[in-house]
Amino acid sequence: MNEICFRFWRVVTPRGDVRPIELVMLRAAEQHGAVSVEQMRECGLSAKAQRSFVAKGQLKLVEPGVAVVVGSPDSWFRRLRIGLLALGPDAWVSHEAAATLLELDRSLFEPVAFTVPRGVRRTTGMGYVHTTACVGSLDVITVKGFRCSSATRTILDLAYLGVPAMRLAAAIDSAVRGRRSAVPVIERRLRELRGSGRRGARALDKLMPDSGGETPLERAFLAILRRHDLPRPTTQFRVIGNNGLMGRVDFHYEAIGIVVEVTGRKGHASDWERERDAQRRDELIDHGLMVYEYTRGQVEDRADWVAATMRHRLTAASWAP
Q: How many helices (H) and strands (E) does the chain have?
């Protein structure tokens, strides 16, 4: 985009002096090639000059009040920017588009969706426009330069859309893993919005009890514990030793000193990775913790056995049902 703008500047300003069109091109370069009529006016480019550049084929109006630099790539990011410029400063990227922008797991490929406050009557040809009357102070953030719904609000919006449970669970787990949200935060915001009769609340009610891990495998392990009435451990616990942080473990029963890790099929295959895992395990044991590990195959195919061994280990460590 910058290269296109620079070539354009050399044609328009042969003496190299600063002119309004240069400021317009700079603004467009920062916005994936899009710029609003209002922004061009702020840069000092008159309405007559704007029409002139459109007539010359150097700018192209794509929405009422929004233009793009001819030659700039028609990217997903440009469509997001055009939509936000067309909808105004109180709009934000939301729903499926927000999930993609936030890089939540299993988000759809480059959807385009926005939200505006209820009562604001604006449209854009770039994507679907939702409305809402419930906007919290932390519901809208800035992501990659775009006004965007937070991970917490995006998860609630995906539930409202009725996305499949597998996708919704993946969004929750990846938001937790990326530290963009946390289970208590999602649950609290769900309680706040539930009073408005929010659709999708029941779907989240089913998924939240097994949330808190960072992968589908960790979610599956928590589901086994819940179904067999076993106590829920603390998830993603940071173990602090005498010399500082020893590492973050999948599950931790602090009262009885048990750590549980779950590993996927791939695991750590290299010698260095296995040595590192063994050293970490030894350090946890030396710290006074009992460390147990379950594989993906055991969690997925031998759930009853996993529950039975966990019950035995918890009871042996003085856990009382």
A: 14, 12
Reported residue count of the chain is: 321
Q: What are the start-end ranges of the E strands in the chain?
A: 34-36, 59-63, 66-69, 92-93, 113-117, 128-132, 140-143, 146-149, 234-241, 244-253, 258-263, 290-295
Residues 54-92 pLDDT 10s: 999 999 999 999 999 999 999 999 999 999 999 999 999
What pTM did the predictor assign? Answer: 0.82
User: What is the per-residue pLDDT across 175-193, written as a single tens digit (0 to 9) for each?
Assistant: 998 999 999 999 999 999 8
Domains in the chain: ranges and CATH: 2-73 (1.10.10), 78-210 (no CATH), 216-316 (3.40.960.10)
> What's the CA gap between 100 and 23, in Å, rounded?
31
What is the three-class DSSP state of 181?
coil
| DSSP secondary structure letter of residue 285 | H
